[in-house]
Amino acid sequence: MSDNWWREAVIYQVYPRSFADANGDGMGDLAGIRSRIPYLSALGVDAIWLSPFYASPQKDAGYDVADYRAIDPRFGTLDDFDAMLEAAHEAGIRLIVDLVPNHSSSEHEWFKAALAAGPGSAERDRYHFRDVDPAKPETPPNNWQSVFGGPAWTRTPDGKQWYLHLFDSSQPDLNWDNPEVHAEFQSILRFWLDRGVDGFRIDVAHGMVKAEGLPDTGGDGTIEMIGTTRSPFFDQDGVHDIYRTWRPVIEEYDGDRIFVAEAWTDSAERRALYLRPDELHQAFNFDLVLAPFKAVDFRKAIDAEIANNAGVGAPCTWVLSNHDVQRHVTRYGDGPIGLARAKAATQLLLALPGVVYVYQGEELGLNEVLDLPDEVREDPTFFRTNGEQIGRDGCRVPIPWKTEGPSLGFGDAAGWLPQPEGWSEKSVEAEDGVAGSTLEFYRQAIALRKAHKASGLTWLDEPSADTLAFDNGAVVCVVNFGDEPVSLDGFDGEVLLASADLAEGRLPAGSAVWFAK
Ligand code: GLC
């Protein structure tokens, strides 16, 4: 395994609830993941990022952690974890785990102790508690709104204090002004580093530090996580001090281990601050998640990221889908055109210098499931907005592995969310070894990317305004974002990979091609 692997890796996000269910309880588990390591190996990924599997009441699908050092029984045991990690390492695949430091679950021992201990106690100081004003008992301490909808404050059961939760009321925010919180998370980092993990994805990495005095935000206090602007609770400069204390911890361990930030910022400049040499290694670039499928928007996002990350010596970290956003096939129009554009965008990403994250199921061309019945939904967004926002369950539907079975090979029982019509044809079994399938396209693209490593990016004259063309030092990539085919006259060299048929030397609408240099 090479040094600095993380500057050019392809990293695959596994969402444990929905990847593979070995024990047939309808929910994915660690043994299921372990059984699929050969699949990930054949896909050619360098590492796995695993969403949370810790002990949790699952009010936010595990992003509500009750014990940071224990595995939730739904997912298995610590032994299962060790066995999975070993199998991944044997296959040459690294493992990044999710760390959730902004908030714990309300079932965490600390929060239970805080409620028991009462106002003014050291236990309450680990979270953000504020007194209820007897003159205005219904008015929270400030106007902050939860990212999932409704106020960011809930009253304690005795009605005397409020506590802060930027997310669900079952996810109280930790107080990062308290040294005990710092010490505890350093210890948690070491716990998993000692077990051999290769890094951490830091959840809400821009959220831990709150502005002094918890001042009101402008407007009505509503701040979206996705597409956020800076606020008294997001992207405060103080978060950087935390990362400067974490970096030396991870550096003590061998093996080039990393931190990747989930930091929603309002500019590439602000994002790059997380990547200064004494802070974190990678930060997801969400600009392409937010961008429409348009040449001009992609180019703008790519240029900003490359310029800003070069300034701090960090790799660009590209992503199109994850467990929080609508799958890119659907964002780009769904159906055949959505899938065509999704493959083209993926092929573009895989030609860029830097790191690419792939979200489980995108390699099968899975679409967002928009019509889940309300009864099966679990995302707190759905409940906290009274169904106004359907939430994120539609990108979390269990993976179809086989063409048949109660959950299409996800497990021996129905999965925790039903799979839609049509997913049998998108299953691994249906696509494996089939020329032209999305799975074979991903396998080929990842293998070619490894064989032809990008060293930079130079824009070339594009054949039309809806097209991007660039040279990455190893391949020339042309992407047609428009609705009409464009001529490829003037581009030559062996065609390494095309996401659609290049009939008559033309690049079809919503497709991409790589030429060897
Ligand atoms: C992050 C996670 C998301 C979770 C939230 C609260 O955005 O990706 O799934 O709901 O943080 O932990």
Describe, in plain words, how this protein is organized in 3D.
The protein is of the alpha/beta class. The chain folds into 3 domains: 5-102 and 179-442, Alpha-Beta Barrel (TIM Barrel); 109-164, Oligo-1,6-glucosidase, domain 2, CATH 3.90.400.10; 456-516, Golgi alpha-mannosidase II (Immunoglobulin-like), CATH 2.60.40. It has helices at 30-35, 37-43, 78-90, 109-117, 179-195, 239-251, 268-273, 287-290, 295-312, 328-331, 335-351, 380-384, 428-431, 438-451; strands spanning 10-14, 47-50, 54-55, 67-71, 94-99, 129-131, 153-155, 161-164, 199-202, 258-261, 282-283, 317-319, 355-359, 458-459, 467-471, 475-480, 486-487, 495-498, 506-507, 511-516. It has an 8-stranded parallel β-sheet with strand order 11-10-9-5-2-1-13-12, covered by helices on one side. It has a 5-stranded antiparallel β-sheet with strand order 14-15-16-20-18. A 3-stranded antiparallel β-sheet has the order 6-8-7, with no helix packed on it. The chain is globular and about 75 Å long. The mean pLDDT is 96. Bound molecules: alpha-D-glucopyranose (GLC). Residues 60, 63, 100, 167, 203-204, 225, 262, 323-324 line the site of alpha-D-glucopyranose (GLC).
Brief characterization of the structure:
This protein is an alpha/beta fold and 517 residues long. It has helices at 30-35, 37-43, 78-90, 109-117, 179-195, 239-251, 268-273, 287-290, 295-312, 328-331, 335-351, 380-384, 428-431, 438-451, and strands spanning 10-14, 47-50, 54-55, 67-71, 94-99, 129-131, 153-155, 161-164, 199-202, 258-261, 282-283, 317-319, 355-359, 458-459, 467-471, 475-480, 486-487, 495-498, 506-507, 511-516.
